[in-house]
Design brief:
Layout: H1 9-16, H2 22-32, H3 35-51, H4 59-77, H5 86-115, H6 117-121, E1 122-126, E2 133-136, E3 142-145, E4 150-154, E5 162-174, E6 183-187, E7 192-196, E8 200-206, E9 209-216, E10 219-225, E11 228-234, E12 238-242, E13 248-252, E14 266-273, H7 274-285, E15 288-291, E16 300-306, H8 310-321, E17 323-328, E18 331-336
Helix pairs in contact: 1-3, 4-5
Keywords: Membrane, Transmembrane, Transmembrane helix
GO molecular function, one term: sigma factor antagonist activity
Domain FecR protein: 124-220
């Protein structure tokens, strides 16, 4: 049993550095499991991360220093006063030339490493059009990627305090709670990230907008507006949608698990327009759709359907909506079936 007075900020900082004893780790684990201490735990964790950030190379400074070095070389080589003897001058230029070549090679290697840092730092898992894929992460968490999606995972494993991944597309997450209470962060390119401990949720992040649905547990959504960040807490059943203008809408869905029905190749439509379905065709299968009459885009579809591939999906649209669909490679032409 821990003593409340024994859990201090200094002790937690020591813990984040990996320098606590086995008994201290057990005390911290028991203390952090209580909901009353969760907010304080993360407050101190964020303070620690702000005080001890991970090293990031300063490329601009390195380039400036390199150009300053080249200017010094040029200034020395063009100075007529540096001419004591022919032998000394020749040796000086040769030495500076070798240094210049070495510096150029080092800079090229440095810039190559910097520009390709995401390649060696992260491992990327991708799905093709019409494909889903389930990943098992090293911490015991499970991620299922929807079609045309990718997930970047640290190649050398998660850090001591944070488990960070990056999503493009759509995925369903089942995150395992760790004994050290590591945060799990899902970053996106749509100016928001999801922070959890251990829970189940779905994230959708594509060009037309984003959404987060929480099935179980508790998450925090961090929304970025330039230099400002807004944090929203989510409870099970919460659905938060964001458009491209960062306009946010929060609602409650009685069956949050239905938003991940695509994992079983199921499609659940509730008064879904053909316009929205065309977005789905493009995002999941890479198929562009054209209609002969704009009025067709307002037709709606309701029900639960199963389709294992794009051909089955197009067939159900034809049958249910009385449409005529012609496919030519990655394009489909939709018209009203007059028969």
């Amino acid at each position: 049993m821990y003593m409340k007075s024994a859990i201090t900020k200094d002790l937690l900082f020591t813990h984040f550095m990996g320098k606590t004893s086995a008994m201290q780790k057990q005390m911290i684990d028991e203390w952090a499991k209580e909901l009353a201490h969760e907010e304080l735990y993360y407050t101190w964790l964020e303070e620690y991360e702000a005080m001890y950030p991970e090293y990031e190379a300063n490329v601009d400074k390195a380039i400036d220093e390199y150009y300053f070095f080249l200017k010094k070389i040029k200034a020395v080589s063009n100075n007529p006063e540096v001419e004591s003897t022919t032998k000394v001058r020749t040796m000086g230029r040769s030495t500076w030339l070798r240094w210049s070549m070495a510096a150029s090679v080092i800079l090229c290697l440095f810039l190559t490493a910097w520009l390709t840092r995401n390649t060696w730092k992260y491992q990327t898992f991708q799905t093709a059009f019409g494909q889903t894929r389930t990943l098992h992460l090293e911490d015991g968490s499970q991620v299922t990627l929807n079609s045309n999606s990718s997930l970047k995972v640290p190649r050398w494993g998660f850090g001591q305090t944070t488990r960070q991944v990056f999503l493009e597309g759509e995925a369903s997450f089942s995150i395992k709670h760790t004994p050290t209470h590591q945060k799990f962060m899902v970053g996106t390119s749509n100016q928001f990230e999801v922070e959890v401990l251990g829970t189940e949720f779905t994230v959708f992040t594509r060009e037309r907008g984003s959404k987060v649905v929480l099935n179980k547990g508790k998450v925090q959504l961090h929304l970025h507006y330039g230099s400002q960040t807004r944090t929203m807490a989510m409870s099970p059943g919460d659905l938060i949608t964001m458009d491209n203008q960062n306009r946010i809408q929060k609602t409650v869905t009685p069956q949050p698990e239905l938003h991940a029905a695509w994992m079983g190749h199921r499609y659940i439509f509730k008064q879904t327009t053909l316009r929205e379905i065309n977005y789905l065709l493009y995002e999941n299968y890479g198929i562009s759709a054209e209609v002969d009459k704009k009025e067709l885009l307002d037709q709606t579809l309701s029900g639960t359907f199963t389709a294992d591939n794009v051909d089955e999906f197009l067939n159900l649209l034809e049958t249910v909506l009385d449409l005529h669909i012609t496919r030519q490679e990655n394009k489909v032409f939709i018209s009203q079936d007059n028969l």
